[in-house]
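Usage

Read records sequentially. Each one opens with the input sequence:
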Amino acid sequence: KDLIKSIDLYKKIITRSDGSPLIGKAYRNLGIIYLFHLKNKDEKAAYGFFEKGAFLNDPYCLFRIALAYRDGKCGFKQDIHKSLELFNKIEKLDYDSNKQIIAYGYLYRCIGETYSSSDYGIEDWETALKYYEKGASMNDSFCLLIIGSTFLDGEFGYKKNPEKAIAFFKKALKAGEDDKAVLSTIYANLGDAYLYDINEPKIALKYYEKGASLDNFHSLCEIAKTYGEGVGHIRNLAKSLEFYKKAEEYLLLYKDNLLHCENYDVLTFYSKFGDFYRDSLNDTISAYKCYEKGASLNDPACLLRLAIAYLSGGYGYEYSFEKGNSI
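and closes with the structure output:
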């Protein structure tokens, strides 16, 4: 590729004044070259081209600028309403003419996220789900995951239907997904559906193992739990301890940036890990070390265990009414 010649050609096209649709395409391609193909990428110049292309209703340029406004990046001050305005402009363009230029399933994913995520201050799930449904109909894996999750949990007006949820999750896997967090969550949700709704723990474990291989914290916790309780297979305390320790490694390493884990998993992790040490391995010293860590995260179960330990003077704790009562 001769990028210099391409840049010169596109710059000649944008000087035209005949309103040709090629002008918008030229701005799009210039932006792509400056952002992705130059040895020293020039983000500022790239988004300058995208902004001019968006003014001419080029769908790719509109999408780039919409995301920039939504996330407050690439030199754009965050403006959610401006972002939604640009997203809606893309929707109004002719689908057949632009489906090769922009992935509409991904467009609907992004609009759905804008309405649903607390990051953007709207949190309108009713509207978000309309877009997720559109994205799911176009085989976007994240949209399929969201719709599957609503059927699994029976939320937002969707009647609980584990079989339907599983069908959506499996369709999401077939759609293909590069995002590690999304893929690992699909596996984790399949594990939950098979374990807690379909009562097929062996199948659930296979999906949890796939999720765990992608650093999914919830999957690691569920594997530790199933080995510890012997659910669906021979009880293996050594394996359970191994996965509890792996989960703790991820918890300590990533803290608030764990891949798609529920806050509940983080909050209750140390009470479960401590109970495993106490009840399965008869190791109260390690158990109460876990409870102390859980108490620092305000896990009610861990706080209660420490309070009892101080008030009773047991488990290696010196009696202290003041400490026990304050907890």
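Summary fields computed downstream for this record:
- Residues 141 and 175 are 6 Å apart (CA to CA).
- The longest helix spans residues 180-197.
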